[in-house]
Each structure stands twice: as C-alpha cells, then as structure tokens.
From TrEMBL, chain A:
The basal body constitutes a major portion of the flagellar organelle and consists of a number of rings mounted on a central rod. Structural component of flagellum, the bacterial motility apparatus. Part of the rod structure of flagellar basal body. Keywords: Bacterial flagellum, Cell projection, Cilium, Flagellum. Belongs to the flagella basal body rod proteins family. PANTHER family: FLAGELLAR BASAL BODY ROD PROTEIN FLGB, FLAGELLAR PROTEIN. The lineage of its organism: Bacteria, Bacillati, Bacillota, Bacilli, Bacillales. Residues 13-34 form the Flagellar basal body rod protein N-terminal domain. Residues 67-76 have a biased composition (Polar residues). It holds the Pfam family Flg_bb_rod. This is Flagellar basal body rod protein FlgB. Residues 55-76 are annotated as: Disordered.
From TrEMBL, chain B:
The keyword Phosphoprotein does not apply. Coiled coil: none annotated. Belongs to the flagella basal body rod proteins family. Residues 98-142 form the Flagellar basal-body/hook protein C-terminal domain. It is found in: Bacterial flagellum basal body. The basal body constitutes a major portion of the flagellar organelle and consists of four rings (L,P,S, and M) mounted on a central rod. The rod consists of about 26 subunits of FlgG in the distal portion, and FlgB, FlgC and FlgF are thought to build up the proximal portion of the rod with about 6 subunits each. It comes from the Bacteria. PANTHER family: FLAGELLAR BASAL-BODY ROD PROTEIN FLGC, FLAGELLAR PROTEIN. This is Flagellar basal-body rod protein FlgC. Residues 7-35 form the Flagellar basal body rod protein N-terminal domain.
C-alpha cells in the first residue's frame, strides 16, 4: 500500500465512521440498542509496531521506484465494533448523545484534514508536471 | 458496511423523532378527553423505536447477501399505555359514574420531559445530517 492508498483508506474509514455515528444518534432512544464504533487507527498502529523495523541507512517507508516494494505500510481494514462495555441506560441503550456529537465533530475535522492532504499532494504533483 | 448514506440514516432519525413529537402533541391535546370513538377515556400513546430494517425489501436481501446492512431507526409500533386511568370526583360531568369520572392516564410533566427529549434528539439528527452533507461537499473539492 502506498501513501495515497492509505489516505484513501483513511477517508473511507472517516466516511464509514460518519455513518456509524449518525446511526448511533438516530438510535439514541431505541431500547436495547448498543452503540457501534469503527476500529482502524489502533489496529493500524499495532500493525506498524509489529512491522519489521528499518535498519540505519535504510528507508523507513520504502520508495516503490527504488525497490519495488512498499509492503511496510500494513494492510489494515476498518471494522465496525459494537460497544458492549460502556454504561447502559434503563432501557438497555448505551448511546451518550454528548460523546456521539463530539465524535461526529472530530470525525468531520479529520475528514477535512485528509481531503486537504490529498489535495496538497495532487497540487505538488501538478506543480512538478507543469514546472511552475 | 452500511448500505445507506449517513444522510439517509440521519433522515430516518429526523422522521422518527418528528413522529414521536406528533404523538406527544396528541397526548397533551387529549389530556382531558373522556369520550373517544372507541369508547371510554383517551389512553396515552407510546412510540416504540427499533433499528431500521425492511425484511421484505429486495434491497435489504441483496444488501445482506453482499455483506452490508441498513442503518437508521424506525418507529416499529405505536402502543397504548395500559397503566390505570385516573379517577376524578366530578358529579356534574355527563360521563360520571357514581360521581366519579375516568380521566386519561396522560401525565403532563411526563409528556413535557418526553417533548424536550424528542426535540433534542431531532436537533442532534439535524446536526449529524449537516455534518454528513459537509463531508460529502468536501469530498467534491478533492484535488481542486
């Protein structure tokens, strides 16, 4: 996976998270509904830590053109997990509207940052092509 | 993965809470209704929420087959509150039996609390809808 594909996957994750949080908010009053979340960054971090470390003098993130191999960015997919542990209301629902709204806002900012990053990368590419 | 977009999910939340609000308004409006077409005093109505699913729709079956699921919420049913009716002493009321009238089991303070809850839930869904819309608008600006 290269950086652009990783950014794409992160955008997909943010989009999926938006749907999951919207679903939690929509079901804030549904009896016995358990809130859901998307697990990605933690898994990705773990995979990065378990990945073989580069030795001194080696590229930490290989450049595909140099060695044709970019597999040190681990291939991790976002997964929807159900939160069974947090405090449960009288009606068996564990959605906390305040924290869902916070999650929603944070996710929106994260999405905007990712879009900005992709745009900047494409802009650099365009500059390199046009030479100005 | 979800089949419907986040805006569809939020829209289902808006619809469900709108309906809840209508039922609350109906309860408050009928807080003193002692004679209904079905006979007897008005009984408080309760909305029951359930996660959205349309088991008969082709889209759902296809979605389940390819490993996606529908998101959102729906009002699964509107049921009557079976709690006991209030007995009020009012011999002048034409519906009185032995001087006592059966009044609806609507408690105004409960309805007001529900109304605030429904209103806040509606606002939360509206905010989520807007956030989803903004994100899709941002996606349109990719690469510009």
């Amino acid at each position: 996976m290269n950086t652009m594909q990783l950014l794409q996957l992160s955008l997909d994750t943010a989009s999926m998270r938006q749907q999951v949080y919207a679903n939690n908010i929509a079901n804030a009053e549904t009896p016995n509904y358990k809130r859901q979340d998307v697990a990605f960054e933690t898994y990705f971090q773990q995979a990065l830590e378990n990945a073989p470390q580069a030795k001194p003098g080696e590229y930490h993130i290989p450049i595909p053109a140099l060695n044709g191999n970019s597999s040190t960015i681990p291939d991790v997919q976002p997964t929807i997990v159900t939160d069974e542990t947090s405090k449960v209301d009288n009606n068996g629902n564990n959605v906390d509207l305040t924290s869902e709204m916070t999650n929603l806002a944070e996710n929106q900012v994260r999405y905007n940052v990712l879009v900005q990053d992709v745009t900047d990368r494409l802009q650099r590419l365009r500059t390199a092509i046009q030479g100005s | 993965m979800f089949d419907s977009s986040s805006m569809n999910i939020s829209a289902s939340g808006l619809n469900a809470n709108q309906l809840w609000m209508n039922v609350i308004s109906n309860n408050i409006a009928n807080a003193n209704t002692t004679r209904t077409p079905q006979g007897g005093p008005y009984r408080r109505e309760i909305v029951n929420f359930a996660p959205s699913s349309q088991p008969t729709s082709f889209q759902t079956v296809l979605g389940q087959t390819i490993g996606s699921q529908d998101g959102g919420v729906q009002v699964s049913s509107i049921s009557q509150d079976t709690s006991p009716l209030k007995l009020v002493y009012d011999p002048t009321n034409p519906d009185a039996v032995n001087g006592y009238v059966q009044m609806p089991n609507v408690d105004i303070s409960t309805e007001m609390v529900d109304m605030v809850t429904a209103s806040r839930a509606y606002e939360a869904n509206a905010t989520a809808f807007d956030a989803g819309k903004q994100m899709e608008m941002t996606a349109l600006s990719l690469g510009r």
